[in-house]
Amino acid sequence: MRRARRGTEEHTKMRIHVLGAAAGGGFPQWNCNCPNCDGLRKGTLRAQARTQSSIAVSGNGIDWVLFNASPDILAQIRSFPALQPARGIRDTGIRSVVLMDGQIDHTTGLLMLREGKPLELYCTDMVREDMTTGNPLFNILGHYCGVNWHRIPTDGREAFGVAGGEGLEFTAVALKSKAPPYSPHRDNPHDGDNIGMRIRDTRSGTNVFYAPGLGEIEPHLVPFLNDADCVMVDGTFWTDDEMVRLGISRKRARDIGHLPQSGTGGMIEVLTPLKARRKILIHINNTNPILNEDSPERAELAKAGIEVSFDGMDIEV
Ligand code: MLT
Ligand code: MN
Ligand code: ZN
What we know:
The protein is an alpha/beta fold. It has nine helices and 14 strands. The protein has helices at 35-42, 73-78, 104-107, 125-132, 137-141, 222-227, 242-245, 267-271, 296-303; strands at 15-20, 54-58, 64-67, 94-98, 119-123, 147-151, 155-160, 168-174, 195-201, 207-211, 230-234, 278-282, 306-308, 314-316.
């Protein structure tokens, strides 16, 4: 057995560490003066800054599987010592990387890992296509550390293991969200453009369902949501027209593959009947009023037993 870094203990429970809880752009976003970003900068808003979307998952507290590689990855690694063991002159606790889609906020951090060993990289055929064409990070990394690609099946049935995922079993399911703007099939959706993942602890039998980009609750998803002990799902927008009303964009939440929280058929309605012990929103856009801890929207979530994730949040499943 490999030795733990001094001060870390070996765990036998699944641990999830939120490295970044924000959607693309982070919070505050560099060029944004929406009430949230402006209020956070001025100190007039009770809210926490957040980096871009990524989590780390471990079955033993030593080896970690990184879900998505955010542009903020270097700061995220600095903020989480478990990812920095000192067993050799060059070392990392990140044993593998899983990509949920090929979007900028979930992939560009891969370039920052170029000094290491070949990356054990898990993604779908569709994301691999994007990462070798429209967003050719795998090709670029071929000139540095290299990528050992492992294909993620999206049939929602086949469970697979991941390097460093000791005691954990993974099942991916195709989701309706959206391929990135630079994808050769942006307007021609395919299974595997975006996925959700059940991560199951084979020792306790408990599982988390993780889906940071989720545009529509299709029937095949319902069992994944119903069976989960913990859900971590798309928290991007409160309303469908949030960015339109702020004059930021002409795009609606659903146009870019995100189910809003409020309203009929929204995420609150989806989460309310679930038996999951923890219901957590992640990938939160900087315009979302739930980031304001004093907002009525945040109070509404609390009443529904729904948590808003934050950078540094630790979850045991
Ligand atoms: C999205 O998921 O829609 C993204 O956050 C967009 C982006 O990264 O620009
Ligand atoms: Mn995103
Ligand atoms: Zn903003």
